[in-house]
Amino acid sequence: MAKQYIVSIGREFGSGGKHIGRALAKELGVNLYDRNIVEKIAAEKEVDAEHLEKYDQKKRRAFFHRTVKGHTTALEDHVNDLQFDYIRRLAATGESFVIVGRCAESVLADHEGLISIFVKAEREYRIGRVMEQFSLNRHAAVEKMERHDRTRREYHDHYCDVKWGNVKSYDLIIDATHFGTQGTADFIKDYVEKRIAAAEESK
Amino acid sequence: MLAPIAAAIIFVAMFVLIVTDKIERHIVTLGCGLLTLVAVFIIIRGFDFTAIWETLSLKSFSELSFWWADPNVTHEGGHGGIDWATILFIAGMMVMVEGMAKSGFFRWLCMLLAKWVNYKSVPLFITFMVMSAALAMFIDSITVILFLAAITIELARLLKFNPVPMIISEIFCANLGGSATMCGDPPNIIIGSALGYSFTDFLTNTGLIAGISLIAVVLYFYLANRKTLKEADMVEKDLSVMPTPASAIVNMKDFIISICIFLLAVVLLVTHAQTGLSVATIGVGIAIITIIAAGKDLPHILKGVDYKTLLFFVGLFIVVGGLEQTGVLKIIADFIASISGGNLMIMCAIIIWFSAVASAFVDNIPFAATMVPIIMSLAGADGTLLATLAWSLALGTDIGGCATPIGASANVVGTSVAAKNGYMIGWGKFCKQSVPATIIVLTISTLIIFLRYC
C-alpha cells in the first residue's frame, strides 16, 4: 500500500456510518468528505450548492430523460459524474482522507491505497437511532429507514459494477450494533493502521 | 392481418425502447429494423423479397434522379423505405461541421458578436438568439448548441450573469431556425427528401413562419428574463479579461478553408432547385471537399462523425418501411381523414398540434419519418394539399420538440452542457420558459397556415 490511504465508508441508513466516518477522520487526523463534496464542486463551478444537492446520491428516473451523442438530460447522472470526477481528482492529489458514500469504493477501486468499509447494524438498533436522531415515532422511522436504504441501493447499483452491501465489494463489513459509533470508529482505525503497516512490511 | 400487427408491435416496441433510454437508440432501431425484415417480410409474408427490396431502397443509388434532377421537370420525391438521400446529406454535413469546429469557427463567431455588442447583457442575449437561429438554418442544431452553450457559460462566468435563461432561449431559437430550412432539422430533411421539396420551398413556407415567430420569441424571452438581464448589466465587469475573437482561431488556413466550404454548402443548398443537385449529391460533395482539405486532420474529422446517428436512421427507416408496406400508416391516415371530415383546417390543426405534443415527449425524427407516408396517403394526388400538410408536419415536429428538455437533440445537448458546468436545468426550469414560447409559435404557425393555405 502506498503512503496515501483512502477509507471509503458505505453504510446502511441508521447504522451511524456518517458519524463513524466523522469520528474516524478525526482519529486519523485526515479530512472527511461526504455531502461537503457537493459544496466544494458548487464553489468550483461558482453555482448554488442547493441546485446540485437535489440530485445528490440519486439514481436517474426510469423515464423522461434522453441521451444524444453522450449527452444526457438525466441531471442525477451529471451531479454524480461531477462528484466521481472530484473524488478521482482528490485521490490524485496524494491526500489521505475518509469518504462516506458516493460509490467511492467503486470509483477508486483501482487506487492502491483504498480501504473499503461497509457499516451495517441490527434493525432494532437502526430504528432506535433514526427515532432519536429525527424525533420520529417507530412507524415513521421504519418508513424513512427503508426508503433511504432503497434509494441508496438503487443509486449505488446503478452507478457501480458491484452491489451495495455485497461481501465482495468491501475489504471489511462491520456491524456497528455491538461497539456503537465511537467503538466502531476505533475498531476501523485499528484495522486501517494494521493495513498500512502490513502494506509497508510487504514493500 | 398478422403482418400489420407485427409491424405495429415492433414499431411501438422501438418507441418504448427509445424513450426508456436504456439501450443506445441506434441499436434499438437496427434491432427492430432487422426484426421487421425477418419477422414481417420473411416469416409472416413468406419471403416477400419485393417488400424487402423496396424497404432497403438500394436501387435509388443507381437512379440519376437520386443525384441530379432536371430543374425543368417536376419531381415527386423519393421512395419509401430507407431514405438514403437524407442519410448521405446528414453524413456530409457532419463531416463539414467537424472541420469547422476544429478550426475554431464557432468560437470565433461567438466572441466576435459578443465583442461587437460590447458584452452588454441585453444585446448579447438577443444577438446570440438570432445567431443560434441563423446558424441552425444551415448547420445541425446539436453542433450549434454544443458551441453556443459552452461559450455562453464561459461568458457568463466572466461577465457574472446566470447563463440558464440564455441557454434555454438559444436552444429554442436553434430549433426554430432549424424549422426554417430543408437542411435545418432532420424532420425537414426527411420531409423535403421524401416529398421532393427544395430549399426555397421550405424557406418561403416554413422559413417565413419561422422568421415571424423569431421576432415574437425574442420579444417573449426578453420580457420573461428582463429582470435577470438588467441585474447582470449592473455588475461591474473587467472587459480586459475577455478572450479576443482572434484567440479562437486554431489555425488560420483551416479557418479560411472551413468558412469557404460552409459558404459553398449554403450556396449549393440555396440554389439546388436551380442546379438540380440533390441533397445527397450536396452532402457527398461537401464531405469529399472537406476530406480533401483536411490533410493530416482527416482521422480526427472522421472520428468525430456520429456514425451512430446514421445507423439510427437506417434502422428507423426500415421499421417505418415495415409499417408502410403492411398498410398500417394507411389505416392511420384514413383515421385522421375520418375525424377531420375532410376539412383542411381541422386536418392541419390536428397535424400541427398532435405532432407538436408527440414531439415534445418522443424523438421527433422517428415521428416525422412515420408521418410522411401518412400525409402522402391523406393528400392522395393533390399536390397543394400535400404541401400544406407537409409544412404543418414540419412546424409541428420542429417546434413541438422545443417544449421539453427531451423534445429535440439540441435541448438534450444544451441542458447537458449546462449541467456539466454545474447549471442544472430540470424539467420545471426548462418548461417554464419553453412551453409558453412553444405555444406562441404553434399559434402563429397555425394562424398563418389557416390564412395562407386553407
What does this structure look like?
- The complex is a heterodimer of chains A (203) and B (454).
- Chain A has 203 residues and is an alpha/beta fold.
- Chain A has a single domain (6-197), classed as P-loop containing nucleotide triphosphate hydrolases (Rossmann fold), CATH 3.40.50.
- Chain A is 52% helix and 14% strand.
- In chain A, the strands form 2 sheets. In chain A, strands 2-5-1-6-7 form a 5-stranded parallel beta sheet, covered by helices on one side.
- The radius of gyration of chain A is 17 Å and the shape is globular.
- Chain B is mainly alpha-helical.
- Chain B has one domain (2-56, 105-248, 306-453).
- Chain B has helices at 2-20, 25-44, 49-56, 64-67, 84-103, 105-116, 121-136, 141-159, 164-180, 186-195, 199-234, 252-270, 272-275, 279-294, 298-304, 307-325, 328-340, 344-361, 364-379, 383-400, 409-420, 427-453.
- In chain B, helix 2 (25-44) packs parallel to helix 16 (307-325) and helix 7 runs antiparallel to helix 8.
- The longest helix of chain B is centred in the middle third of the chain and has 36 residues, at 199-234.
- The chains are: A alpha/beta (203), B mainly alpha (454).
- Chain A binds chain B through residues 41-42, 44-47, 51-52, 54-55, 62-69, 71-73, 75, 78-79, 81-82, and chain B through 19-21, 24-25, 142, 157, 306, 308-309, 361, 363, 405-406, 409, 411-413, 415-417, 419-427.
